[in-house]
Amino acid sequence: MNLIKGLQRVKALCRTLRVNREIEDLSETYYNQAYQHKSFIKVSLNKKEVLAGCCVLVSCRLLNWPITMGTISCLLDADSMVVGAVYEEMVKILNIKAPIINVTDVMEAHSQEYKISSVYVPEELAENSKDLTKRAVALVELAADSWIVTGRKPIPIMMAAIYLAWQSLKPTKQRLKYSLDKFCQIAKVNKHKPALKRITEMKEVLCKLGKEIPWVKEPVTPDNVVRLMEDILQHRDALLRRALRTHEDALLADCQASCEDSLIEETAPSQISEVVEQTPDLSSVELCESNAERAKQPGDGDDNQCAASEQHSYTQGSQDSSQNWGKRVLFAPPCVIHAKKRRVEQPEPKDVTGDEEISDSEIDSYIRTPREARDFALAQKMFSMSESEKS
Amino acid sequence: MLLNVIATVKLGCRLDLNIIAHKARNVEYKPKVQKYQRRMIREPRTTATIYESGNIVCSGANSEDQSRVATRRYARIVQRLGFPVSFLNFKIQNLVATCSTFPVIRFCGFFTLHSYEPELFPGLFCSVIPGITATIFASGRLTLSGNCILEVLTILLLLRKF
């Protein structure tokens, strides 16, 4: 009986999502197979319902129908972690290799949830769904290029992109004043808190690119960058190239400035080449390499020594710098730019063999004295008595 | 860098967890909620889960030898409390190692199987070879988990060159 109800639930989900017949059939097949498996035959009805949703999810993914786990969780009114756990188990049992979801593919389906057309909201706040989706997709692609999307949940990113796209399509004072909270209220969607952070990160990226626009004279800040978003997205490739070049030039200038201040050490050219091979492949290292190459020109001995000292000091600090390479590149994952402070690793005793003698005094420190054991038993008894009196 | 070594050992006798909880320090035991005991020692800094059946699971050591020393200490503590323990079938079950790769790996050319669900977990899971799982993060951090230290360390060295 539960199998039949489960299959009916699968059909209902497919009809709600308006998927095609092929996906519906595949979902039913998977549900049949998974239901019979020992991992799912004796689980609760709730879990079986979640299983139905997961079968629909995996079928959609396999047949290129973009859908997120969040959508299924919403439809089932289930916790996304529970859905995730059931999904992982089901995929393992049925040996399914589902393709990785692409945020830009899901964007169009997600933006349909936002009730922002002229039917639902006043004209000054309304926006055409197609334009909104197109602008949001471009913003998500830019976010993906600048490491904002990797490893993050897609829904807050999409929400942030749609919000910024909506503001930028008609950047009036009224729209720019609208907070994410208010926007979600008028669009009738649930707000996701991480979307606020994504908005900040996206604005930072847009500011970095906005600064490279030649016809913009005023300083580009997160407050005024929304007005420039159309231009930024239209010319983003060129602006990205310019921004990277500007950043490299700035790093080179810093390199040279620090060279002049640091001590000059004499190193042989062969040592320089060895050091260059060993250092990681970073843009700043490439800069120093090019600096060293330029400095190797005859008659420029000071710069040569400067480059050598720079390489040498870079190697010495390579372990520290590798921990935070994100601060030297223009775009890096935010978890690298704002890296957590890792606790200092304690030095391991190197002479441990596993068969050392264990002294009694060492073990005694982990065993209670008889008096301590008595006191502990007494305290426990009193505690349990007071608890039973309370209840 | 090895982060964690998980090992198991059988003590060869049944244990009364109540007695151990009363007579030993650094013990966490909630008999109404769980049927095992957790205890910790300072050197090496590890945690052990002790079951009534006499099985111990020891985690937190930074090397295989440290794990062995720690497990022997736990067994010795139980022995001092009056139980006739033996140290049987000591086995390293799992090792977790981590390294930083830079720049961030964009292409997992030689990983055979991968699973990436950003809605559930920010890392990407790869099965490098059967028995070894790699978890890769956007920051470039890579964590390897497996039960053979030689294989885990070999893969770490290979990845640093890659």
Automatic annotation (TrEMBL), chain A:
Q: SUPFAM superfamilies annotated for this entry? A: Cyclin-like
Q: Please list the residue ranges that the record marks as compositionally biased, kind Basic and acidic residues.
A: 344-353
Gene3D superfamilies, alphabetically?
Answer: Cyclin-like (1.10.472.10)
A family per Pfam: BRF2-like_C_cyclin_rpt
Look up the signal peptide feature and give its range.
none
From start to end residue, where is composition biased (Acidic residues)?
A: 354-363
Which Gene Ontology cellular component terms are annotated? nucleus; transcription preinitiation complex
BRF2-like C-terminal domain: which residues?
103-236
InterPro entries xrefs: BRF2-like_C (IPR054078), Cyclin-like_sf (IPR036915), TFIIB (IPR000812)
Q: Name one GO biological process term.
A: transcription preinitiation complex assembly
Question: Keywords for this entry?
Answer: Metal-binding, Repeat, Transcription, Transcription regulation, Zinc, Zinc-finger
Q: Where is this region: Disordered?
A: 290-323, 340-366
List, in alphabetical order, the Gene Ontology terms for molecular function in this entry.
TBP-class protein binding; zinc ion binding
The UniProt regions of compositional bias labelled Polar residues, in chain numbering, are 306-323
The family this protein is said to belong to: Belongs to the TFIIB family.
Tell me what this protein is called. Answer: Transcription factor IIIB 50 kDa subunit isoform X2
Native organism: Lates calcarifer (Barramundi)
Q: What is the lineage of its organism?
A: Eukaryota, Metazoa, Chordata, Craniata, Vertebrata
Q: In the UniProt record, what gene is named as encoding this protein?
A: brf2
From TrEMBL, chain B:
GO MF entry, a single one: DNA binding
What are the annotated GO cellular component locations? nucleus
Gene Ontology biological-process annotations: DNA-templated transcription initiation
Q: Which SUPFAM superfamilies does this one have?
A: TATA-box binding protein-like
Task: Using the record, list the residue span of the signal peptide; answer none if the entry has no such feature.
Answer: none
- Principal place of residence: nucleus
Location(s) in or outside the cell: Nucleus
Q: Which UniProt keywords apply?
A: DNA-binding, Nucleus, Transcription, Transcription regulation
What's the superkingdom here?
Answer: Eukaryota
Kindly indicate whether the keyword Chaperone belongs to this entry.
Answer: no
Question: Which family does the record claim for this protein?
Answer: Belongs to the TBP family.
Q: What is this protein called?
A: TATA box-binding protein-like 1
Q: Which organism is it from?
A: Lates calcarifer (Barramundi)
